[in-house]
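Fig. S4 source data, part A: sequence.
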Amino acid sequence: MTAITVQTARPRIVESLRTNFRVYAIDGALLGIFMVSACAFVTLLEYPTSPVRRAIDSEFVRRALVGVAMGMTALGLIYSPWGKRSGALMNPAMTLSFLRLGKLNAIDAVFYVSAQFLGATIGVLISSVALGMMVAHRSVNFAATIPGMRGLAAAWLAEFVIALVLINVVMTVNRKPHLSRFTGCFAATLVAIYITFEAPISGMSLNPARTFGSAIFAHEWTGWWIYFTAPILGMFCGIEVQRMISQHQPCGKLTHARNCFVECNCLEGRSQS
C-alpha cells in the first residue's frame, strides 16, 4: 500500500468509526448477550449440582433444551430494536458474506468483525464473573465449542454444511415477499436444530467470534481453525449456489427494517419498518 493510499484511507477509517461506532457496538453487544445466554443455559442444564441437571438424565433432552433456549435468544436479538438497527449480523462469517455481496464496505466489515470478537469475549467475561466456578466447571467449560469424537475432519465438514444450509435458507426465504419478514424465525429455528442434532459433531459454533470468546476463558483451542474457516467458506459457497440458481441478487439479511445500517435489496425490506 502506497503512502498516498494510506493517507486517503485514514480519513475514511476515522470518519466511519466516528459516524458508525454505535452500530458496530450494538452488533458486538448483541453477540455478547447471546454468549451470556449460552453460558447461563449450559450452566443451568449441565452443571452437576443444578436442580435442572439432576431432574433431566437424558443428554439429548438437555441439549435440545439448550437449543430451544438459544434459538429463542437469537430470535429475540434479531427482532429487537438493536437487531433491526445493526442487521443482527453477530457473526464474522455473516459479516464477510455481506462484504462479498457488496452490502458492506471493507472498513465497516472490519469494525463489525472487531466488535463481534470483542462482544463475544466480554459476554463470556460477564458470565464468568456472574457464575464463577460453575461456568468454569468441565461440564460447562464456558460453553466452548470442541470437535466431537468423530474427529476434526467431521467437525469441519459439519460446520461447513450447517453454514451452507443456513445462508441458503436465509437467501431463499428472502426471495419470497410473503416470507421475508420471517427470515429471522427460520434462522433461529435452524440454530435450535443445529444445537440439538449437530452439536455432538462439532460443538455447533457457526461463528468464529462465538468460539473465540469461549476459548479464551476455557483455554481450549482444539481445532480452532475449523471454526475460523468452515463457517466462512460454507456461507461463501452458499452465496455462489444462490447466484447460480436465481437471477435475483441474493440477500442474506435476517431482519428487514428501514433504519437498518446494512443495505437490502428485498422489496419487503423497503416496505416495512
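Fig. S4 source data, part B ends here. Confidence is low (pLDDT under 50) at residues 267-273.
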